[in-house]
Every structure is written in C-alpha cells, then in structure tokens.
Design brief:
122 residues; 4-stranded antiparallel beta sheet
Length: 122
C-alpha cells in the first residue's frame, strides 16, 4: 500500500477532525500531496494540496480558512486538520500523490489511499 488515510469519524457541526496520510518513501517523494473527497452521488473533488519543494499550499474555496494541510517528509506522513466542520463536508476523504502539474486535477494523481469516511452531523 503506497498511501493510507485514517482519522475519519463522526463529528458534530462546528467540530474538528485531523486526518492522517501515511505512505511509502516512494509515495512521499512525489512532488505534491493532495486531499480529495467524494460524497455519495458526486464526483471526487479537490480539497487541498501541498508541494514538497517549498511547502506551498492550495485549498478549494469551500474549505479555505477552515482546513490546514501539512506534510512531514521525514516521517512520510501528511495531515489535514479540519476545523469548523459543516454537514456538507461529509464525504470519504482520500489522500493522493502527484508528480506535479495542476494540483486540483485528480487525473494527475497516480497514487491513492483507500479513503476515510468523515460524517458531520447537524
């Protein structure tokens, strides 16, 4: 398994969760670590990404200011801190790795974790 996401669960609206992504050296040598999510009946959508070379970060408009992405290359782990959660954040969250390019395009990510379910109750 190249990447494995964990940390999902059930939380009330306004609460917080911290997702983790553990991976192989091969995976974490990728240029970009990203998080995507997929709610039932919807397309998988970009959430956040962080670039290995300079730790620059990118967020979707829907999570900007509430979520924080980070990575620890020495430990081959990444995290997604999610605060002020909303019911519309409910989805399966996936971590993924890409060699580069547009960080929001899921087609450019070639390594994926299995996903972890986040459920936010109102």
């Amino acid at each position: 398994v190249q990447l494995q996401a964990s940390g999902g669960g059930l939380v009330q609206a306004g609460g917080s969760l911290r997702l983790s992504c553990a991976g192989s050296v091969y995976a974490f040598n990728r240029h970009v670590l990203g998080w995507f999510r997929q709610a039932p009946g919807t397309e998988r959508e970009f959430v956040a990404a962080i670039v290995r070379s300079d730790d620059s970060t990118y967020y979707s408009d829907s999570v900007k200011g509430r979520f924080t992405i980070s990575r620890d290359n020495a430990k081959n782990t990444g995290h997604l801190q999610m605060n002020a959660l909303k019911p519309e954040d409910t989805a399966v969250y996936y971590c993924a790795a890409s060699k580069g390019g547009d960080v929001t395009r899921k087609e450019l990510y070639d390594l994926w974790g299995q996903g972890t379910l986040v459920t936010v109750s109102s």
